[in-house]
Amino acid sequence: MCHTTDSCPPASPVVTGGIADSGGFELGAADGNRFRAFHAAPTEPNGRAIVLLPDLRGLHPFYEALAGRFAEAGFDTLVIDFYGRTAGTGPRDDDFDGMAHLPLLEPAHVEADAAAAVAWLRERGHGTVFSVGFCLGGGYSWRLAAAGLGLAGAVGFYGPPRFFGDRTDALAAPLLMLLAGDDVATGQAEFDALAAGFAAAGKPYEMHVYEGAPHSFFDAAYADWREACDDAWHRLVDFTERHAAAAA
Fold first, then answer.
1. Ordered structural domains, the chain, with CATH
2. Residue among 63, 80, 71, 85 nearest 21 (CA)
3. In order along the chain (248 residues), what is the average pLDDT of each group of 10 residues?
């Protein structure tokens, strides 16, 4: 299952500083949508910015806290909520029924909102922007690499391939796939088929499977998967560092 408000995002083992400031606000997309966002700025920036895409619960407290963990690792981080069009801009706590709004969410909605987030980060002076997503957001994160946003790369944790869709030929940025070996939401065969399509099309990607790990293992509450969380952090930091240098 996806994260609840009792979950706790794992701290990065690659900490460069603290959180300079953080807070929520509203952003507007080009199609007129208003949506909730949350920003966390680092005290020691690493020169890279992240658009963070949550799971189906939208921008609930887990992702506000996770934005802080990214800021502590040096990333200027902006989390976006998916449901401004259907649920307004209120908070997403455990009372929010994401499953009721998920069928109304279209790829074009996510892409429009992500474009607004990327533009906001670039107005802050960031030329190197990555997307990072979890579950629903993981699939859409990979898809954003084919959305013409000029991303330097896209990272997805256990993102169902159905949210990526048929966008392989349009991919314009490298992908990092961080997957749970015991994912009850998506079987490994689906991920293997997705990766095979990337390979056949000559699209750059990296895939790592954490054998035995459950869906949503990226959670400090899962003490048994602390090493996997640390490893995922290292892979993410390394991926963004390499591809930021390549994009420079």
1. 19-88+96-247 (3.40.50.1820)
2. 71
3. 72 95 98 98 98 95 96 98 96 91 97 98 96 98 98 98 97 98 94 98 98 94 93 98 90
